[in-house]
Each structure stands twice: as C-alpha cells, then as structure tokens.
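HOLO CASE FILE
Compound: nicotinamide-adenine-dinucleotide
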Amino acid sequence: MTPPSLKSPQRRALLLASTAGLGLAASSGAVRAMAPARPRTRLRLGMIGTGLRGQVLLRELLRREDVEVAALCDIEPLMLAKALAMAEKAGRPRPATWGEDRDPEAWRQMLAKAGLDGVIIATPWEWHAPMAIGAMQGRVAVGCEVVAGITLQDHWDVLNTQLQTGTPYMLLENVCYRRDVLAVLQMVRAGLFGELVHLQGGYQHDLRAVKFNSGDPAKPYGGGVEFGPKGWSEARWRTEHSVQRNGELYPSHGIGPCAMYANIHRGNRFTHINAFASKARGLQDYVQAQGGKDHPNARVRFKLGDIVTTSLACENGETILLQHDTSLPRPYSLGFRVQGTKGLWMDVNQSIHIEGRSKPHQWEPFQPYQDRFEHPLWKKHAAAAEGAGHGGMDFFVIHAFVEALKAGAPMPIDIYDAVAWSAITPLSEQSIAQGFKTLEFPDFTAGAWKTRKPIFAFDERY
Ligand SMILES: NC(=O)c1ccc[n+]([C@@H]2O[C@H](COP(=O)([O-])OP(=O)(O)OC[C@H]3O[C@@H](n4cnc5c(N)ncnc54)[C@H](O)[C@@H]3O)[C@@H](O)[C@H]2O)c1
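Model generated. Tokens follow.
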C-alpha cells in the first residue's frame, strides 16, 4: 500500500528492474511510433488511478464512441466505485477492475491481462514513471498525467524505455489546449509578436485547501488540516512533496505553452536553468490558523518555498521565467507572457499590445484577437468541448491522445517534451540546493532538436 517513497532505494531498485535488459543508452534522437498496420477506428483503453482527476478524464473517454473503457485500476475502493458508476450511468459495459485488494502493484496485472491498446495514468506523481515504463514494456501506449517522473534518472528511464520499445507516450498537458493559449500559438506562427524574446508562465494556484482536508471523501477541499494517510485525494500524497522538496514542483502547465511558442525540440532547446525559492510560511500559517497551534500538523516544517522562481535560457536566445506559487492566498492565474520584437500578450489582464496596431504604450483587450486567430482545433470542436473540464481543454487533450493513437501518428506532446518539461522539477531542486546555481540543461534529444520539424502537431485533427 505504501507508494515508492520520493527518492528511496526501493524505488530505484524497482525502476532498474523494470528497465533491465533495455540498457540505459543515450537516446538515438528519433521518437519511434508503434504504427499499426492499418489505422484503427476503435481503441481499448484502461485507466490507472480513478481519483478526482481520473474521473474527469474518464468522463471524456466515456463520451467517445471510438473508445471502449475496458479496464480500471485503483487501490481506493471508493474511487474505483465512483468510476464504475460513471461507466454504468453512461450506458457502457462494465470495465474489468483491478486494485480492490489495495495491492499497489495490481496495475501490472491489468496491463498484462486486459489486452489494452493504451492506458491513462492518473495516479500520484511518484507512480508515473514506474507505471509508464511498465506499460511501454508491455507495448501498451501511455497517456500520462503531469509529471513524467520524480528524479532526473526517472526521466532518462522513461525516455530510454520509449526509445527502446517505440511504444507511443504522450504527456497529458491540457493547458497546451487552452483556447487563448492556442490562439496565441497561431499569432506566434503568424509573426504578430515579431521574433520571440521572452516568455513567462507558471503555476499560481492557491492549493492550501487541496493540500489539507479532513479526510472525509465527501469534502476533498478544505474543512480540515490533515494530510498523508489521514487526508483524502491529493492531501493524501501531494502535500508530502511540500514537506520534503523545494523546487518548481509543477512545471508543465506553465512551460508547455512556452515550449510550444519557442519551438523547443523543433529547432530550439533549453540550455540552462536556475531557480530561487523564497522562505516557506504559507502552509504552516494556514495549518495554525485553521487547525490551531496545538494540532500536530502545526509543527510540520515545510521545505517548499512559497514562491519558487525558475529561469531557463534557450539555444535561440529566448529566456523563460516560471513561477510556482501554491501556498499563499491568491486568485488562480498561470501568468503567461509572450513577448517579442513587435509586442506582447499577458493573460492576467487578458491584454495585448502590438506595435503598429495598438495605440502607443496602451493595452488592447485580447478577445478580438482570440476570435480572429482562433485555432483550427477550437473552430472545429468548440461544441464538443462544451462542458469538458478546465474550460474545455480536457476534451482536447484526450482527443489528441486518442486520435494520434488511432492514426498511428506521432504524439503531439511527445516523449522529449514530456521529459524536458518535467525534468525542470529535479533540476530546480538541484539548483536551489546548490545555492541557486545555474545548471546546464540536459539535451534529451541527443542533438535531434536541430533537425526536428518546427511544429507541435496541433492541427484540426489533434
Ligand atoms: N492536468 C490537470 O489539470 C490535472 C488536474 C488535477 C490533477 N492532475 C494530476 O492527476 C494525477 C492524479 O491526481 P488526482 O487529483 O486525481 O489525485 P487523487 O488522489 O484524487 O487520485 C489519485 C488516485 O490514484 C490512486 N492510486 C494511488 N496509488 C495507486 C496505485 N499504486 N495503483 C492504482 N491506483 C493508485 C489513488 O487511490 C487515487 O484514487 C496527479 O498526477 C495530478 O498532478 C492533473
């Protein structure tokens, strides 16, 4: 029942065993797609982790005629029951289930026995790498929730397994499909901002009521200051990362869109990284205010700085700034800024300034630009995305995985994107631990970034 601890030798052994025979060779630079003989029209999919996020993604899968949800695995019977009830309500056949006995390795049985084309992984972060590696070794395509792994070695292991097996792998980074984010991608490609110079993004989301609750499954947000075994949903596992780690813990929502704009791994790459962390006050203040100074959790020392600021340099001269801000009171904002020689967009005010179009030194509202530069995906599927999670973007991220897998086409957010975006976490931890040192960013593509086509696949299909 205990998950692999964040850096335990037991976990390393598990990973090494699971990559045995594959070797840990440097990447060849080519992402292999396991192309089927003929494009498929229907997929048998499974899901590991049917918690709160898994259920949102499951809803999208159950709406699709081209998907059979054949198998579900969760070690929390209440979460599994909720997912089964969703399948029943949708009028779908009952998926086979694993994990009722709370065996944390039950997913291996599911992957071996369920005859799946692909699997969605929506478990706690520490499980993502071993589960993705196990699935790819069994030739089951992977759609993995953010992040790809915990340690830097995890990221190499996930990458090497993908390269060795050719099994498709997509990071399910939904913010890349946000309506304004994709409209800005069109604007970047049309040259509206001129040559890109600087990008910003982040994860600025007050998670205090996610990291602590009472443990009551009916009230997953707030209402208590428990975490770990006494917490429920993310409080059960996510909060421990704030106790043990200091770094940019959730980079992909911010870096994903910035990497698309800057064509990372498609003619550009990250070359350097450093990170600064502020003091840690917010979580302890919250626990003391909500639970009282005598509550045992009031004495917990959280390692995660309240504001972690990470800087990246890119081969083509752009800088990227990310901010992780989850422990203080604030309204939600990912804080995007896209700035080039001819102007900039900032999402916090939904405003834009383009030289020659906007009045000098003044902001313009973004909406008319969004309408004019609407991405083909949104033009085609806005109605289908209506009501899907996170303003519709959860429809698109599942749609992309399913359509690319059916077509045997490259995944739009591929293994190189996944590992580089996600490796920002261990690299930022390392930078902070070494006195905010600037580190070289590993080239996961082994030079292939120079010749890969300057696109993220996003077209009107996926
Ligand atoms: N992209 C997004 O917008 C978004 C939003 C929320 C969460 N997430 C990500 O989704 C993932 C899941 O988050 P969540 O909010 O659903 O958390 P959750 O705690 O609600 O769900 C996780 C589920 O995994 C199950 N689980 C744990 N270990 C398992 C194992 N060994 N085998 C099978 N099941 C196991 C748990 O019982 C739980 O039901 C995380 O990686 C999180 O970062 C992404």
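CASE NOTES: DSSP finds 15 helices and 15 strands in the chain. Residues 176-376+415-450 form a domain with the Dihydrodipicolinate Reductase; domain 2 fold (CATH 3.30.360.10).
CLOSED: yes
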